[in-house]
Amino acid sequence: MKHLLARSSAILPARIVLSAVTVVALTVHAASAQPAPVKAPIVITGADRRPAASLDGDWASIVDPYSNGFSGYFRNQKFHAGDTRPIEYDFSTSQTLKVPGDWNMQRESLFYYEGPMWYERDFTYQPKEHTRIFLHIGAANYRSYFWVNAQKVCEHEGGFTSFNCDVTAAVHAGANFVVAAVDNTRLADGVPTLKTDWWNYGGLTRSVSLIEVPDAFTDQYDLHLSRREADQIEGWVHVMGAQPGAKVEVEIPELGAKTSAVAGGDGRAAIAMAAPGLERWSPETPKLYKVIVRAGPDSIEDLIGFRTVETRGTEILLNGKPIFLRGISIHGEAPYRTGRANTDKDAETLLGWAKELGCNFVRLAHYPHDETMLRAADRMGLLVWSENPVYWAIKWEDPKVLAKAQSELDEEIGTSRNHAAIILWSMANETPNNEARTRFIETEANHARELDPTRLITAALLVRAEGHTKIVDDPLGKALDVIGANEYVGWYEQTPEGADTTEWRVDYQKPVIMSELGAGAKAGLHGGDNDRWTEEYQANVYRHQLGMLNRIPQLRGMSPWVLVDFRSPLRNLPGIQDGFNRKGLISDQGQKKLAFFILQKAYKDKTVGKPE
Ligand code: GCB
């Protein structure tokens, strides 16, 4: 855990320099009541499996387009009749917002709002000895700042990952309050940057809770199946605050498997445990085991599947056997109600549609999705591509931006490294081919491999064309285990029939996933096979694409764009798009378009892809 030093003054805006990895320099107009060192947030693996006091529900809120609240809203003062103090805000009489939830979909006036929003919520607490308490935030888009009882507890940058603020020193017995400022202003030096093809939903978009742990506790662990030895589980457990020689225990009761290990000076204990008779996790048999990790008085019970994934030449091997990834791309947007997805039901609806389509794989684009999606993918047997929000052209030359991307990667991997479903870490989507970009993403790829050498590294690359030949030769491919490629033959280029005469040259002898392809269609709009925006046009694109894809020798998977129509401010064709990207195989209201059934048939009959 890194500490940060906060200098603050009642008069001058304070510049707060944060630890390089977790949060990068942020300017805050803060005037903390008691300037005290604030700890940077930490990553906790399996946080959703720990007993917690939920803070979900109604939070008081204040819209603050001029960033005025940084001068004192965190004090949560209340104006009383006859008060002589010039108090110009009051949470207790302000409108509320639901957490988890983006604000855009909760109030019409906030539909396009980008800026700071203040949140406040009361809670009661009884501190216990030898206990630490963390404020767990599932995600807050994009920058966020937290105070408990007017004491600054942490700040964070990055809109799609979970983090935990140590609030032990700030809570007291009885009534407490937490104030958060969440700012979704898009930043030129943000990750992602100013322009994305999705809605910039702001707020506390995922669940918030208080997690109590013993003084020394397991903050991170990685347990996976060995690639080398059959039925051998390996990995490590890290104990934060461990005394030298602290003992760690891992047990899988169903297998009668148990082992103990001792944490080294760095708090980490290496785990190696025989698990004879273990049933491997796969899309057909998504077997999950109860795994108990103990460290002194701390105990966490996770549900983990065990499988291996690797490449051999141009094959992707799951549990040692070649697999073709029949996939679909999915945005983290809620079906029917739109807005950010964050419930089990959202996850089950989205992934249920993917199953119905015949998928064994989903690309969770373009940022790490809610833990509920990953839990559902584990349960339902869907392999996952998880993506860091390095999207289009970010500031490759800026080391601060690299630190942000790495911090988001740390949180993504640290949070979700025990999900059997995840087989691919994607570093980026559609990035321009230049040296600074390649260096940036290579650095990230190396970082991801250090954090997790058990999964495959990929990125969705742009493809270039020479005449009728599509060429995949982006130098970034060298740094990847699996090549992702996006193409829109039949939509942004050529006609649907153009796919019939398009050939492919992939300059890498590595597995290729066609990570995007597709076409827009308004559900219910019908016409000829070549009438844009009709369901027939979209179906026609899929029909011709399927033939073309089968001519790519290295093709080992695909995740067409996209399962469901989603909101995007870039899509403004009235009567057709109305603010939605319409490339969904299903409309935002759940209507399946013709192309859904074309792809479903190809997946069910296995007429696309290399036979497994
Ligand atoms: C892309 C992007 C994706 C867009 C999609 C589109 O290449 O990766 O984020 O939404 O195209 O619909 O144009």
Structure description:
The protein is α+β, with helices and mostly antiparallel strands. It folds into 3 domains: 23-214, Sandwich (Jelly Rolls); 228-307, Immunoglobulins (Immunoglobulin-like, Sandwich), CATH 2.60.40.10; 311-605, TIM Barrel (Alpha-Beta Barrel). Helix content is 14%, strand content 32%. It contains 6 helices and 37 strands. The strands form 10 sheets. It has an 8-stranded parallel barrel with strand order 25-26-27-28-29-32-34-35, surrounded by 4 helices. β34 (512-516), α5 and β35 form a beta-alpha-beta unit. It is globular. The chain starts with a strand and ends in an 8-residue tail after the last helix. Residues 1-33 have low confidence and may be disordered. Residues 197, 366, 429-430, 486, 516, 561, 581, 583 line the site of (2S,3S,4S,5R)-3,4,5-trihydroxy-6-oxo-oxane-2-carboxylic acid (GCB).
- Point out poorly predicted stretches: 1-33
Structural class: alpha+beta
Query: What is the CATH first-level class name of the largest domain?
Result: Alpha Beta
What is the helix tally? 6
CATH architectural group of the largest domain: Alpha-Beta Barrel
User: Which fold name corresponds to the CATH topology of the largest domain?
Assistant: TIM Barrel
Largest sheet: 8 strands, parallel, barrel
Content of β-strand = 25-35%
User: What value does the Rg take, in angstroms?
Assistant: 25 Å
According to DSSP, the number of beta strands is 37
Number of folding domains? 3
How much helicity do the residues have?
A: 10-25%
Looking at this structure, what is the CATH superfamily of the largest domain?
Answer: Glycosidases
Cα distance spanning the termini: 45 Å
Strand arrangement within the widest β-sheet reads 25-26-27-28-29-32-34-35
Mean pLDDT metric: 94
- Which term fits the overall shape? globular
Q: Which distinct ligands sit in these coordinates?
A: (2S,3S,4S,5R)-3,4,5-trihydroxy-6-oxo-oxane-2-carboxylic acid
